[in-house]
Amino acid sequence: MNNQGINQKTEENKIKLAEVSNRISAFIFDLIVFIFPWTIIYLAYILFSFQDNKLFSLKEILLEFQSKTGLIIIPLLFVYSGFLVWIYKCTLGKRYTNIAVVASKSFKKTNFLRAFLREAIKFSLFFIPYYGGFLILFLNVFLIKLTNKKQAVHDIIAGTQVITIPPNKKKKKFLNFFIFFWAAIFLISITGLLYNESMVLTKKIEVKQGDVWQYYENEIYGFKVKYPKEWFAKEFLDEPNQIFGVKLLPSEGSEKYIYFQIYKYDGIMDDLIKEFQEKGIGVKNKTTIRGYPAIIFETQENKLNLVKDQKRFIMIYSNCRDVFNKIMPSFSFTK
Q1: Any idea of the CA torsion for 180, 43, 188, 222, to the nearest 10 degrees?
Q2: What radius of gyration, in Å, describes the C-alpha atoms of the chain?
Q3: Per-residue pLDDT tens for 295-317?
Q4: Which of 100, 196, 206 has its CA nearest to residue 155?
Q5: What share of the chain is helix, strand, coil (3-state, %, to 5)?
Q6: pLDDT for 7-65, tens place per residue?
């Protein structure tokens, strides 16, 4: 064995490979560091939406956030990780936990192709269907925990290893301040949103009583309807895509009901018709209600109307047809 081989072997013996706990901690730290600024920027947009009456509830905000961001965060996190591993051998999370990514044979900085190949394979786990990603994740934990080289699947394919590096107190102090700063702004933003929502919800409902009928009026979602004086209104949320719901009942636990449910929906009315037809609900006719496109469905038990505006639709259905037919002429949008 020549001197170069001996020196390389001695160098390898000095290197300590990273444990599973360090790698998981680094990944979580990167998620926090990356997602906080992204979320705060979007929360600022949401805050203005509250003031402009574009969005009305925290649940709708979360649905809007999901539809706006979609899968954008994962590709951006991929670029962030690949670039920093290529240039500095470590992301902010890896620097915080004192680990770095190196080429498996030379234990030196990886090249561009190797760094991005590693991250591409790692983030592809998010897109493997039927829990395949979780199976690979458990396999990675097994490989890192119980094999000598401690290489995950993406390390084996890309030819990389994750090693420990000496701690840097100055950098760790900066990263502690960095994460604390973003966490504080994040909490302030969330508090502001909750406060705005509470201020809006305090003026949401108005019930007006007459001799025979009383009116339910919702200022947030901009609709009102009359219903029998002896009935009562009860709000509810019981479906994932539902933004708001109110049920009109003659008494608690009654089998008779009239429901008003609002859902977020950016598609066209024909898509809605198709979805309901696939569920076996036949369309009686298309019409308009107070100038908005609407559909009337009927089943043996229920009568149902769908009214759609730009971003949401309101579903009105009942198994009490006589009352339903009397109140629907009074239904109107208030804004």
Answers
A1: -160
A2: 29
A3: 777 666 666 676 766 667 788 87
A4: 100
A5: 50, 25, 25
A6: 445 455 578 999 999 999 999 888 887 777 777 766 666 666 555 544 445 555 555 66
Strand partners, 317: 259, 304
Percent of the chain with pLDDT over 70: 70
Residue 39: how many CB atoms within 10 A of its CB? 19
> What does the block give as tokens for 69?
């961001």
Sort strands 99-103 and 160-164 into parallel, antiparallel or unpaired: antiparallel
In the structure encoding, which two tokens stand for residue 34, read together?
């990356």
Strand order in the sheet with 303-308: 232-235, 242-249, 258-264, 312-318, 303-308, 292-298, 283-289
8 Å CB contact between 258 and 320: yes
The CA distance from 84 to 76, in Å, is 12
Taking 90 as the threshold, does the pLDDT of residue 161 lie above it? yes
Burial class for 310, CB neighbours closer than 10 Å (0-12, 13-18, 19+) = exposed
**pLDDT tens digits for range 104-118:** 988 999 999 999 999
